[in-house]
Design a protein that fits this description.
The protein is mostly beta strands. It has no helices and 16 strands. 32% of the residues are buried.
């Protein structure tokens, strides 16, 4: 479904017509143990290409595994919804920088949404992306500072830190607001869905090579 370091596995299944109460529920079942903490840093053309600066001499902490709620998204697609206009939320979602990791690893948003990028580490970060839907470079900024980016075009935006090459995340910019992240046990519910026929799609970070969705 999506290719690259950040998203390499996808699943889709046709959804039945939405029930009268307008809710689609299901559960993600992970078929093997998470291996986030054992994976080496991913090195590719997005990795740091300049000499390391402030913070680069810090030893990397042991990378904890992301929770399922931080790395999986379920969303709906429908031809009928593509013609509708949706108002983005006034409250900005966060792509946090903490413990030399992005949180969450996969962030779903509605097109037109502004995302805040706070730095909570006691060192500099430089958040950037070369992805076609939104290319940006926030420059290097210290702990306690926050910068923002508006994402107008739907698509997959892969995000990196130019100082710490192991840091990566994905912003999934969607055409409609009918998406949700599961809880850490895999259960999810998309509410207030208009009557119609939809495709239910599931995507997750690289650490979920095998999973299935039940509805």
């Amino acid at each position: 479904m999506f290719l690259g370091a950040a998203l390499v596995y996808g699943y889709h299944a046709p959804a039945q017509e939405a029930k009268r109460e307008g809710e689609i529920r299901g559960k993600i079942t992970v078929l093997r143990a998470d291996a986030d903490s054992q994976k080496p840093p991913i090195l590719d053309r997005y990795s740091t290409h300049r000499p390391a600066v402030t913070g680069s001499d810090h030893a990397l902490p042991a990378q904890p595994a992301y929770k399922l709620s931080e790395k999986a998204v379920i969303y709906l697609e429908s031809e009928a919804m593509k013609a509708r206009v949706y108002v983005p939320p006034s409250e900005h979602p966060l792509l946090d920088q903490k413990d030399l990791m992005f949180h969450p690893q996969v962030l779903p948003i509605l097109a037109g949404t502004t995302v805040d990028f706070p730095n909570r580490d006691n060192l500099f970060h430089n958040v950037f992306s070369y992805s076609q839907p939104k290319e940006f470079d926030l420059g290097r900024y210290p702990t306690g500072m926050q910068k923002s980016v508006r994402f107008d075009k739907p698509g997959v935006v892969r995000v990196y830190c130019d100082i710490h090459s192991h840091m990566n995340a994905t912003i999934l910019v969607l055409e409609n607001p009918y998406f949700v992240v599961p809880d850490d046990q895999g259960s999810f519910s998309i509410k207030d869905v208009p009557r119609g026929t939809y495709t239910v799609r599931f995507c997750a970070a690289v650490s979920l090579p095998k999973a299935r969705v039940s509805q």
